[in-house]
Amino acid sequence: MIQQTPRTTTSRMPKRTQYDEELVYSILDEALFCTISYAIDNQPFSIPTAFVRKENRLYIHGSVGSHFLRGIESGIPVCISVMLTDSLVVAKSAFHHSVNYRSVIIFSNAVKHEEFDEKASFFQELTEKIVPNSWDYLRPMKASEVNKTTLLSFEILEASARMRTGMPNDDEADKELPIWSGIIPIPSKRLTPVADENSVGIQLPEHLENMQ
Description:
Elements: E1 17-18, H1 21-30, E2 33-40, E3 43-50, E4 52-54, E5 57-63, H2 67-72, E6 77-90, E7 98-113, H3 116-130, H4 143-147, E8 149-155, E9 158-164, E10 182-185, H5 206-209
C-alpha cells in the first residue's frame, strides 16, 4: 500500500500529485528506465538504469563489480525517479509553456537477492519488458552470466505519482492574442529494427516485426 509521507507531499500544485497504487504501477510498467539518486560520503550520485516492477518491488541489476550497486546494496537511502513525457504544452507566452507528463518518485532502500533462480527469473522479466516476446528466441542465458550479475530490489511503499494533462493555462488577457497555442504530442515509439553486420540475411523474427 502506497504511503504518503512528508517527503512525498508536494506544496506546489498538490492536485497534480496522487498516491494511487495502480497509477504508480502503471507508470512504472510503461517506463523502461529510472534514475536512482543517492549520496556516499556527502558526494551525490544519480544513475540511470533499466528496471522492472514485480508486485510492490522495483528490480534493477548490474555487474557484481559495479561501484554503483556495491554502494547502495548495503541499504542506504535512495530516491528513484521515473518520467514519461506525453506532449509539449505551447502557450501564448513563454512563461506558461509546460509539459504534459506522468512521473513517479520513490524513497526506498535496496535489498540484495542472491538466489540463482530468482535472479534468472528477473532477467527473463526484464528482457520481456524491453523487447517483448524475445526470451524464447534468444540464446539461453548461461549460469556464469547469472552469477556475474547483482540483483537489487526496492520496496514501492513511500511513493507518489505526479502528472499534468491538458492544454495551456494562458492568462485571461492573453487568450485573444493572435498567437498559436496548444500541444505538440511527443509519443515514445519503437521504429523499424536495423540489423547489424552479423544479421544481414537473417529474417527479422516475428516478435520484432510486430513490435509497437
